[in-house]
């Protein structure tokens, strides 16, 4: 199993969710987060005061999938979240040792 | 009720001969005087005119609405979320304190005349004694004396509340209340008497013996200059907020700020048009000039930002609107619509430069730009009134007292700006010197600032035991 962590632009969330649903990914965890990469922040001006906002709002998606579909999942996320402009985000893939579905005690691939 | 009145009449009839009943001509003249907002003569003495009184009660409520919640939200939105309640509490606290001071001494010190002094009113109305529903004809022929007193109270309330903007987020609540209490006696009461009192030093329109023949329709000097300059001095003595210039101190809610601005604009009709103390043509003119100057100033400030910075911001529009309202305040009853548009442009350009360039250059922490908008705006308003005032919209500028003290001549042949400059100088010196003394006095007795920990954590939870937004 793999944990796929995608940090994307917030307005791309719907498209990514639909694309994942289309390839059969049945669940995900979504968090509103803040951060920056090469895009850096932006400047806000209030009358005479100028503030640099370093952390921009992003959405973090976490999905755990079976090893066989991990590649396809990443591909789908990248395709759906892409605008081609700076700040599109990143996808990370992490191996997962074990998964348990709490309701049924199912383990491994059956649990995700 | 009628039976009772009849009793009184018959009793007095025994003691003295009844006054002659007014003739039909006198009664007609009194009605005409009501329409013209003039002297009713004998037949309607002591009677409040319903229309004028209705407008003044409405105006009174409108001016209160400027402070609560207009100014409270305008300022409240501009502070960080940990301090939003402190601003609301300061506005509410000041309202209560000033209301009591006004009832006990303030009204009398401003609008009494028993001292026969150009600097202070009198003691005859202490505790609003004798302030009844009958008009006080020193100030208005048709408006109840108590309504006039309440109307003027709202001005006394909003003036110190304006100071809150410069010292926001870093002064103890009790210290603010203590400062304001003393400040009202030393700055506001004497200044308001000088400008609006019937024996006032600078009351050019109504005091035939005024030494300085300046004019100030709704409070450019009394309200905006006094609070604005005091605010600057107090914020300098107080020092900047912890982290000023290094940490982000952006407004926590531009939405609240905009809502407050709209309320200020609406309430300001009571402030400016109400200052005619009657529902007459002068009020109508003030209503018009207030609208124009404000709209033009809001648009101009937004346009300056769009041209020089790329974005027309909400805070820009709001700042422009408030600056427009401030600058037109002393002028609104004395200038025509063209004058108002000129004032609107000036009201955006000059305070814009004060809030951006001047503040950046000197680095003082005027947190919400009370100085940049109210002191600078009030000062240029007082000065431009000297150039743009015209008797064509307000015949009182060439009325009997104005002829006696020389104002009428200044209005028709120029030179009023010099009298305005004198009024500006007096206001400035009084506000600055008094604030230095009062601020150090309060500092010595109870201190001005909360501890660093309290300031870091926020005034709301520490000073008021509440949070603005419970998460």
Describe this structure in words.
The complex is a heterodimer of chains A (112) and B (471). In chain A, 22% of the residues lie in helices and 37% in strands. Chain A contains 2 helices and 6 strands; from the N terminus they run E-H-E-E-E-E-H-E. In chain A, the strands form 2 sheets. Chain A has a 4-stranded antiparallel sheet, covered by helices on one side. A two-stranded antiparallel ribbon of chain A has the order 3-4. In chain A, helix 1 runs antiparallel to helix 2. The relative contact order of chain A is 0.31. The mean pLDDT of chain A is 93. With 471 residues, chain B is mostly helical. Chain B has 2 domains: 35 residues, no CATH class; 410 residues, Ammonium transporter AmtB like domains (Ammonium transporter fold, Orthogonal Bundle), CATH 1.10.3430. Helices cover 66% and strands 0% of the residues of chain B. Chain B is globular and about 75 Å long. The N terminus of chain B is likely disordered. The interface between A and B is medium-sized, with 8 and 18 residues.
Characteristics of this structure?
heterodimer, A: alpha+beta, Alpha-Beta Plaits, 4-stranded antiparallel beta sheet, 2 helices, 6 strands, B: 471 residues, mainly alpha, Ammonium transporter fold, 2 domains, disordered N terminus
Q: Can you give the mean pLDDT of chain A?
A: 93
Helix content class of chain A: 10-25%
Structural class computed from helices and strand pairing of chain A: alpha+beta
Which structural class best describes the helix and strand composition of chain B?
A: mainly alpha
Strand order within the widest sheet of chain A?
A: 2-5-1-6
Give the helix proportion of chain B (percent range): 55-70%
**Can you tell me the CATH architecture of the largest domain in chain B?**
Orthogonal Bundle
Task: Give a brief rundown of this model.
Chain A is α+β, with helices and mostly antiparallel strands. Helices cover 22% and strands 37% of the residues of chain A.
């Amino acid at each position: 199993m793999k944990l796929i962590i995608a940090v994307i632009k917030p307005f791309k969330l719907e498209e990514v969710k639909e694309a994942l649903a289309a390839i059969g990914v049945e669940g995900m965890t979504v968090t509103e987060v803040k951060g920056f990469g090469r895009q850096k922040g932006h400047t806000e001006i209030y009358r005479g005061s100028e503030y640099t906002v370093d952390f921009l709002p992003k959405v973090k998606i976490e999905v755990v999938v079976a090893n066989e579909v991990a590649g396809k999942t990443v591909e789908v996320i990248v395709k759906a979240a892409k605008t081609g402009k700076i700040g599109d985000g990143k996808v990370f893939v992490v191996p997962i040792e074990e998964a348990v579905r709490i309701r049924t005690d199912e383990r491994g691939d059956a649990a995700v | 009720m009628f039976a009772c009145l009849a009793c009184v009449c018959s009793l007095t009839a025994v003691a003295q001969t009844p006054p002659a009943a007014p003739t039909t001509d006198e009664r007609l003249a009194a009605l005409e005087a009501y329409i013209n907002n003039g002297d009713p003569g004998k037949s309607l003495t002591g009677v409040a005119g319903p229309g004028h009184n209705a407008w003044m009660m409405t105006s009174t409520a409108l001016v209160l609405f400027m402070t609560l919640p207009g100014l409270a939200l305008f300022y409240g939105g501009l502070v960080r979320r940990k301090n939003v309640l402190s601003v609301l509490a300061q506005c509410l606290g000041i309202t209560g304190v000033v209301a009591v001071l006004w009832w006990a001494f303030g009204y009398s010190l401003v609008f009494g005349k028993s001292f026969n002094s150009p600097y202070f009113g009198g003691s005859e109305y202490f505790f609003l004694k004798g302030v009844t529903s009958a008009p006080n004809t020193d100030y208005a022929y048709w408006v109840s004396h108590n309504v006039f007193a309440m109307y003027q109270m709202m001005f006394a309330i909003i003036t110190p509340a304006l100071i809150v903007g410069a010292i926001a987020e870093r002064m103890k609540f009790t210290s603010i209340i203590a400062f304001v209490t003393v400040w009202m006696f030393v700055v506001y009461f004497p200044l308001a008497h000088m400008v609006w009192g019937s024996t006032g030093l600078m009351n050019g329109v109504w005091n035939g013996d005024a030494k300085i023949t300046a004019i100030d329709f709704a409070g450019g000097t009394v309200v905006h200059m006094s609070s604005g300059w005091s605010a600057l001095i107090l914020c300098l003595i107080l020092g900047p907020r912890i982290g000023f210039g290094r940490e982000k101190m952006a407004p926590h809610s531009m939405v609240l700020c905009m809502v407050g601005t709209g309320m200020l604009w609406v309430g300001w009709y009571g402030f400016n048009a109400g200052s005619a103390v009657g529902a007459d043509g002068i009020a109508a003119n003030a209503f018009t000039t207030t609208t124009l100057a404000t709209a033009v100033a809001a648009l101009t400030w937004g346009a300056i930002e769009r041209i020089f910075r790329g974005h027309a911001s909400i805070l820009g529009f709001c700042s422009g609107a408030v600056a427009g309202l401030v600058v037109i305040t002393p002028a609104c009853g004395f200038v025509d619509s063209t004058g108002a548009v000129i004032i609107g442009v000036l009201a955006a350009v000059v305070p814009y430069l004060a809030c951006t360039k001047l503040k950046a250059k000197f680095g003082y922490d005027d947190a919400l730009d009370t100085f940049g908008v109210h002191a600078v705006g009030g000062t240029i308003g007082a000065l431009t009134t000297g150039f743009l005032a015209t008797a064509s919209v307000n015949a009182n500028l060439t009325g009997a007292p104005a002829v006696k003290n020389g104002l009428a001549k200044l209005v028709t042949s120029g030179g009023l700006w010099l009298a305005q400059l004198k009024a500006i100088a007096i206001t400035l010196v009084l506000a600055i010197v008094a604030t230095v003394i009062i601020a150090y006095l309060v500092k010595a007795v109870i201190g001005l600032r909360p501890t660093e920990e309290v300031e870091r954590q926020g005034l709301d939870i520490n000073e008021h035991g509440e949070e603005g937004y419970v998460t």
